[in-house]
Amino acid sequence: MASSSSRRVLFRLLSTSTQPAPAKLPQSITNSLSSIADPFTLLADELSHLKQNIRALLGSEHSTLNSIAKYYFASPNQGKHLRPLVILLIAQASATAQHDHHQDFDKINQPISRHDVLNDSNPNQPTSTEPVDQSTKILPTQRRLAEIAELIHVSSLLHDDVIDQAETRRGQISAPREFGSKLSVLAGDFLLARASLALSRLGNFEVIELISSIVSNLVEGELIQLESILNLPSSSTGDSSSTQQSITTFDDRLFEFYQRKNYLKTASLIAKTCRASVLLSNTTSNSHLVEASYEFGKHLGLAFQIVDDILDYTISDQSLGKAANGSDLKSGLITGPGLFAWKEFGHEFGDLVHRKFINPGDLDLAQLMVKKSDGIRKSFHLAKSHIQSSKSHLNAFEDSESKQALYSLCDLVLERSN
C-alpha cells in the first residue's frame, strides 16, 4: 500500500482536474516541410548505399558473430540513420566548387599494414566497399565517416541494451534477449573494432582524435546514467551527510548534470562527426564553418535527447520501439520532464526520489506528477531552444538544397513521435 502522505498527494492531484494532463508534444511547429527539401528524399540513394557498405564492413569468418553484429542492421525497422544523414548533409552543405570529385575511393579501403599480417586470423575481413555516384559533392572519406558513425552508434545500443536489460529495441526482441548478454557485448566490441579500422584509413589525425573521443564520451555518459540522478551532485563542502539530507530538495545543478549526460551519451557523436565532416572537406581552412558545424550538431543532439525523454512519458512502447510509459523513472533515471516536475512539486516529488520509488504506488504517483506538472511543456521548450540554436549556426553555410534539408531535419527532430 502507498504511504498516507502519498495517498494525500495522489488525492489532491486527481481532484485538481477531471481531465488528465495532455500527454503529447505541443504542436507549435508552423513551417511547412513540403516547402523545403526533405532530407530523407534528398539522400535516399546515399542512405541505401550506406546500408550496403556497412554490411560489407562487418564481414567475419565466425557465423555467430556475423549474425549478431548485423542483427540491428538487418531489422525491418533499422531506424532513421539520423547520424549518417546529418554527416552527409553537412558534407554537401560545406562543399565548394573546388571539391575533388575524383578523389580515389579505393584509398580508404586499402590496409596500412601488410595485408597478410592484418588479416591473418580473419581471411573474410572486407577490403572494399561499393562506391556510389561520384558526381555528388560528398567525398568518399565523408561517406566512410557516416558509416563509422553508425557503427559506433549501434555498438553503443548493443552495450546499452545489456546494461539496461532491455527487452526490445526498434520494435523487435533486443540482442541480449535473442543472443545473450555476453555475445551482445562481444558484438558491440566487434563493431567498435571495425569502426576503428575504418577510421584509421581516413588519413586525418584530427578526425581520428575527434572520433576516438566520442567513444570515451559514450562510456562517461553511461557511467553518469548508471550513477543516476538519484545521486545528487557533490556539495562544494564535500559533506556527504548534508547532501544525503537534502536529497528531497530540488537542486538546479541537477539540470547541469542532466545536460552533461545528454551531451556525452547523445550530442557528442552528432557534434563531433559534423565537425569531422567539414574537416574532411576542402573547406578545412574555414574555421568559422568548422566551429558552426560542431555547434549545430551539439544543439541538434541535445534537442533530440530531450524529445526522446519526453516521448518516454507520452507514447507507447510499440510506437517508440523500446520500453516507454515512464521506463526512465522505473530504472531510477529522472530526465527533463521529471526534473521540472520535481522543481514544481518540491518535497512531495523529492520524497519519492529519496526512497527510490520503493513503496507500492510510488512510480504511478511520480508519473502522474510529471503529467500534471508543466514538465512536458517546459522540456519541449528547452528542446525547441536548442533547435533554434542549431538553425542559427546554419547561417555560416551558403544557401543550398542541403542547407534547407538541414533546416527541415531540425523541425523533424522536434516533431518526431518515435
From TrEMBL:
Domain of life: Eukaryota
Keywords in alphabetical order: Isoprene biosynthesis, Magnesium, Metal-binding, Transferase
Cofactor or coenzyme needed: Mg(2+)
Magnesium listed as a keyword: yes
A molecular-function term among this protein's GO annotations: metal ion binding
GO cellular component, one term: transferase complex
Keyword Magnesium assigned: yes
Gene Ontology biological-process entries: isoprenoid biosynthetic process; ubiquinone biosynthetic process
Residues covered by region (Disordered): 114-137
Gene3D superfamilies linked to this entry: Farnesyl Diphosphate Synthase (1.10.600.10)
Spans traversing the lipid bilayer: none
Comp. bias regions, Polar residues: 119-137
Family statement drawn from the similarity comment of this UniProt entry: Belongs to the FPP/GGPP synthase family.
Protein name according to UniProt: (2E,6E)-farnesyl diphosphate synthase
Classification of source organism: Eukaryota, Fungi, Dikarya, Basidiomycota, Pucciniomycotina
